[in-house]
Every structure is written in C-alpha cells, then in structure tokens.
Amino acid sequence: MATEEDDGIDLTVSETVEGLLESYRRMEMPMGRYVTVILIPSAGFFLLASIAAVLLDLPLLIRLPIPLLGLLVFGASLFYPKILLSQRRRELNNRFHLLVTHMTVLATTKIDRMEVFRTLADEEEYGELANEMRRIVELVDTWNQSLDDACRRRAKEVPSEAVSDFLDRLSYTLGAGQSLEDYLLSEQDQIIQEYSTVYESALDSLDVMKDLYLSMVLSMTFALVFAVVLPVLTGTSPTLTVSAVIVLYIFVQTGFFLAIRAMAPYDPLWYHPEEKSSPADGKIAKSFYGGVGATVVLLFVSLGGVFGFSPVALGDLLPFVSEPLPLTLYAAIPVTPLIIPGVILRGEEEQIKGRDQEFPSFIRALGATEGAKQSTTSAVLKSLRHKDFGALTENINSLFKRLNMRIEPAEAWRYFTADCRSYLIQTFSEMYLVGREMGGSPKLLGELISENMNEVLQLRQQRRQATTTLIGLLYGITAASTFAFFIGLEVVNILSQMSLDLQTGSDFDVGSLINTGVYNIPLIEFLLVIVILFGAMLSSLMIRTVDGGHKMNTYIHFVVLTWLGAIVSIVTRTLVSTVISI
C-alpha cells in the first residue's frame, strides 16, 4: 500500500523529470539534435568506461575513478540544459528591477512606446533582458505583430516567473488601451517587491548553504585527522591516505564555492569604466604592484630557505626571530604584503558605500529643484553644492565645475560616475540623464530613482549582515579544522619519536602494534599547510562573492585566514607537546 511519503517522492521525481524536459524544450538547439550529438555519445562514453573498469587488470584504486569519470560526463550532459536554463533565469531576475526602472523613466518622456523597447534592446548592460526586449522589437517590426501580442508571446517563453508575469500584465494592459507610463508607474511597488523577494530568497539559500558547508567541512576535517592517525595502527602509507582525503577536501570546498557563487544575488558594488580613470585608480594600482612584488620576493626567500637555494633565510629578515621557523610561517609570511592592496580597497569601498547612501537624497533634491525652478542642472547645482552630502559632496562639486566650464552634460555626468566608481550611481545617473534629455519631468525622475535606489540599499544592508555571519563562520571553521589537523599530526610525531622498551617475549613484535616508521612527518605537515592555504583562498573568494565587492578585496581575508591557520597550528603543536611531556 502506497504511503504519503512514497507519493511525495513520486511527485518530486515527476516534477524533476518534467522540469528537465522543459529545459530541453527551451534550448536554442533542437531537442533531437542535442540528444543525438551530445547525450547519446556521453552515454556511450559512460558505458565504455564501465566496461573498461571491469576488464582492465589494474588495482582497484585506479579502476574505480574510470566509471566515475564516465558518470560525471553523462550527468553533465544530461543536466546541462537545466543548468543553462537556471543561469538564464538568474540573469533575467538579477537586472529586472533596473530594466523596469529604466523603462519607466523612458515612458515618462515624450518618445513613442516602441522607442522605449528599442532603446532598452540596445542596452548591453542588461544582458539577457536586453535580448528579450530585442525579440519583442523583432516580433513587432519584422512579423508585424502588435506590441501586446508580442509581449504575450514572449511571456510564455521566458523562464523567469517575475518577467513572465510582468510581460503578461503589460500585454493585457496595453491591449485594454492603458498607456505604458500609467502602467509602469502603478507597477513600481509590485516590481520592487518581487525583486526584494528574489533577493531575500537568494540570501536565505545562502544561509542554508552555510549550514551545509559547516557540516561537510567538519566531516572532512574528521576524515583528514583519521587519515593522519590511522596508519599508526594499520601500517598503510599515510602520505597516500592524507593525499586522497585532501583531494576530496578540495573538491568539496570548490563545489560549495561554485554553489555559493551561483546562488549569490547579482548586485555589484564597483563600476569600472574602460575609457575614464579616477584618482583612486593610481592608488589601487600602486598598492597592488607593491603588495604583489613584495610577496614574490618573500616567496622566493621562503622557498629558498626550505630548499636551500636562497642566500638569505626568511628568519634573517625578521628581527628577534631565529631559524628554524615553523613550516606554517613559511607560508604565512610571504603572503602578508597582499594585505596592503586589501586595506586600500577596503577604504575605497567604504567611500563608495558612503556615496551610495547619499545619492538618493541628492538626486531627489536635484530633480525637485530643477522642476521647481525650471532651470538647468548647472544652475541648480550651484546651490546644492553648498549642502552636505557626505562622501558625495566632493563629486558634486566636480560635476558643477565641469558643467560650468560648458562641458557637454552627458560627458560631465560620465566623469561624475567614473569618479564615484559606484555601479548603482552610474546606472541611475544614466537613467536620469537620458530622461532629462528626452523631456521627462525632473521631479518625477528624481523621486522614482530615489525610491528604487533606497529599496536596493535596504536589501544591501541585509546582504551585509549575511556577509558578516559568513565571515564569522569561515574564520571559526579555519581555526577549528587547523586545531584538529595539527593535534593529530603532533600526536603521531610524538609517537614516532618514542623509544619503546618493553619486556616482552621473543614471539611478540611491538612494531606490529604501532607502525611509526611509515610516516614522513615533514611531508604530511607540508600537505596540511597546502590545505590551510587552499581553504583560506576559497574562503576569501566566498566572502567576496557574497559581499559583491572588488576582486582584490579577497586579499585581506586571505592573509588574515592564512595567519590564523599558522598561529593556531603553532599554538596547537606547542600545547600538545607540553601536555604530553608533563
């Protein structure tokens, strides 16, 4: 008799299969061609790999990965359309609120509604959303369909529910005779609410991933400690067991990093214009080259001290420190100069966050004053520049000076956004500039942009809290796992140095109980240091992915996590040696 649990499992399986078939249907490549060209050959490769694993006369440790490789290829080809569809859905959701805000700004101007869609179709910044706008324009211009029919048709094809609902409601509204401007202004609250729901859902998914990551890493830590200690009793090669677990450990951490990268909401902090530079660029470049150069020099000295080809030892560069240094310090000291660009970037990011906080007030005041005085932006800025807008005040002064020098307004605003280096300021400033050039109401534009940016800033505050929690988790995991690694290593090291002098019979072999001769302690310690470095690197990348900051922001966390692992390892080995000697 079937139970409710069995019915739930069947429903889940049927939903998975249905979703997989739907992803095949939405591919640009026909389903039959994909099955023939990709899926069937990958299934044949899996079958051949399985047969080879059975027939080859090789050790089990070598034969076992062969069918696993075939299974990986087949699984990747089987689920690739679903992964592709998920990526497309994510791209649609990430920039949807920006596109709707931009569409609303354009709709409030005096241009035709089809020109709104044509303008958005040319905005490469919107990625997949721009492609959707392009498809709607093509249906209208090439196939002579009405705009409401084109929106209704594309609503059935897009994988994002939010975009599909928006296009479906838009098609109904346009067909009923309502103007595009009225519809978009009435939809603002709902659109931003949908974006907030998607954003918060992504943050909730990250919380679940953090719990799974904690459980998995603790399990892998136990397995690695077990691999270090077990050969004492079994006599197997500890280098082989430790290396195998380390490879698995690296795969697990890499998998979680990729999963977190896929789940994190797309909300970049930085704006990187290719044609214009800012005063911060020179400072960042100098700190980067200085930090990396010092790291290269220290790395050469560190490796030279270990392998004996450097004329200067690492300990000679450090006052009050003598050789030999603990092995973990040979890894921690060379990477320390990387903290210099990390600290510089952290300061610049705080400046950008400060400008983001002030921009909604500035753009609202600018729009309201322009609308009331019916004057140019330059004349309005002459009075606004004397108000305190925090970190944005200096940039507003520069914008006024450029406009006052009769520089083209579009060019002056682009210099303004380049100096601010903020992704949100660049995006919303471009919207305001285009809206004003096309005859839009400055007061309405200022209020619309200010409200939307304030909503995004509130979501960023939640993201900042999630990042803080993740930082605490990763730092705690690094300390705990390093503590466990080096407890096991130090116990084995002490056992290998012990001299057993037991009065036993001639038939009793003490070496059969404790196998310390199979250990190469320096090699195992080196492998554990590799684990610490790799864990610090991936942890810092996870933090940067969730935070949404600059890539070089990973350096500061990488250095601190590496030093945390080094200090914990030294303290752990010292404590274990002291306790056992007592």
What sort of overall outline do the alpha carbons produce when their principal axes are compared? flat
State which percent range the strand residues make up. Answer: under 5%
Radius of gyration: 30 Å
Order of helices and strands: HHHHHHHHHHHHHHHHHHHHHH
Number of strands: 0
Portion of residues in helices?
A: over 70%
Cα separation of the termini: 65 Å
Mean pLDDT comes to 84
| Low-pLDDT segments, ≥5 res | 499-506
What structural class is derived from the secondary structure elements?
A: mainly alpha
Number of helices: 22
Biggest sheet overview: none
Quick description:
The chain is mostly helical and 582 residues long. 77% of the residues lie in helices and 0% in strands.
How would you describe this structure to a colleague?
It is a single chain. By secondary structure, the protein is mostly helical. It contains 22 helices and no strands. It is flat, with a radius of gyration of 30 Å. The model is unreliable at 499-506 (pLDDT under 50).
